[in-house]
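Appendix B. Chain record.
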Amino acid sequence: MVNIPEPFLTTAQDLHESEFKMMNTWRDIAMQPDLPRWYGVLLSSLAWMLNGEPVEYVTASRQDGDTLARVVVFTGTRIILSDVAEGGDVVPIAYPRERIKAIGVQAETSVFGSRDPFESWPGDLRVVVVHEDAPVVALPLDQSPRSRGRLPGLTEALRDSIGPKA
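Structure tokens predicted for this chain:
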């Protein structure tokens, strides 16, 4: 067994238990008795990059083609993007959060409402983050209730960080 020091072990366990197991598109991977090697390497790499910094938001998707998966992690200071290549290579790249240039937001619900008494405003959000150095990121990557539910809070923080309120 590998001896993994704190805070890395706790971070990896939290990502596995509290994030990936809760995502619709990742549940079947994260719940396997024999986890794929790339998944463990991904958790190790993210834990190393985070170094105990609290995670504000995580979203992930599985993909076809040369990239098996994509993970996006937001902390108070960084955006970490990680693609998992078909061969299992994982290289997370961290970008400073203060270099976000713009965000775009699409609300699901009209301001005029609807006849559905259970519909809430603004409904689910779709968010695009434009960074000076990183590729454009569209959120959420997965449609789990956890990812969708945490997105408004992240969006507020991102909106407030790119300029003062009018």
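Further analysis of this model is presented in Appendix C.
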